[in-house]
Amino acid sequence: MKMNISTNRLALTRLVALLLVLLPLLSACKKENDFQKEAREYEEKHKIIDEALIQGYFTRNGIASGSYTRLESGVYLITLAEGTGATIVAGQKVQTKYTARFLSQELNDVVFENTYDNRTLCKCVELIVDQSTSIIKGQHEALKTMKLGGRKKIFIPSYMAYGRGGYAQLGVLPDEPVWLDLEVTKVL
C-alpha cells in the first residue's frame, strides 16, 4: 500500500509539473498578436466614428429614432415592406434588387451601385445568404431579417461594408459607411 501511495504521489507531482510548464503555452494561445490587437483597436475606433456618421445621416434626413432598428452588428434597418412567408436563413438562395448609396454629408445619397444596371433580365443579383462573396457582410445581416417581397433601407457601418480597403472600382473610400435600399424578389 505504501508503494501505491508513493506511486500516486509521484504521478501527481509529475502531472502538476507538466501543467506548470504547459500553462504559459496554453494561455499564450488566447493572447492577441500585435496585428490582431491593432485590427481590433482600429475596428473599435471606427465603430464609434461610423455610429456618429449614421446618426448624423438620420438627423440630417429627419429619420426619428423610433423608425429604425439596430442589429447587434451595428447595422440599422428601416422596414419599407414586411414581405410574406418565413424569414430568410443562412444558406438560403435568394434574388435581391438593391441600390447602394453613400451616407456621408459630402456624398449624401449619391448612388454608387445598383442591380438595375447589371444587364440581367431580373435586374437583380442571386446569392446564398452568409456564403456569397458578391455582397457585403451588412447585406447578409439584413437579409436574415427579411422575407420574400420584403424591402428595407439598411445602414451599414464601414466594418460591415467595404472596410479599411474600400472598393475603388465603385468609388467607395476606405472606412466608408453606406446605405442600401434592398428588396427580396425571390426565395429559391
From TrEMBL:
UniProt key word Translocase: no
PPIase FKBP-type domain boundaries: 91-188
Reactions catalysed: [protein]-peptidylproline (omega=180) = [protein]-peptidylproline (omega=0)
Cited Pfam families: FKBP_C
Top-level class of the enzyme under EC nomenclature: isomerase
Keywords: Isomerase, Rotamase
Stored PROSITE patterns: FKBP_PPIASE (PS50059), PROKAR_LIPOPROTEIN (PS51257)
SUPFAM superfamilies assigned to the protein according to its UniProt record, in alphabetical order: FKBP-like
Entry EC no(s): 5.2.1.8
Keyword Kinase: no
Annotated PANTHER family: FKBP-TYPE PEPTIDYL-PROLYL CIS-TRANS ISOMERASE FKPA (PTHR43811), PEPTIDYL-PROLYL CIS-TRANS ISOMERASE FKBP16-1, CHLOROPLASTIC (PTHR43811:SF26)
Family: Belongs to the FKBP-type PPIase family.
Name of the protein in question: Peptidyl-prolyl cis-trans isomerase
High-level lineage: Bacteria, Pseudomonadati, Bacteroidota, Cytophagia, Cytophagales
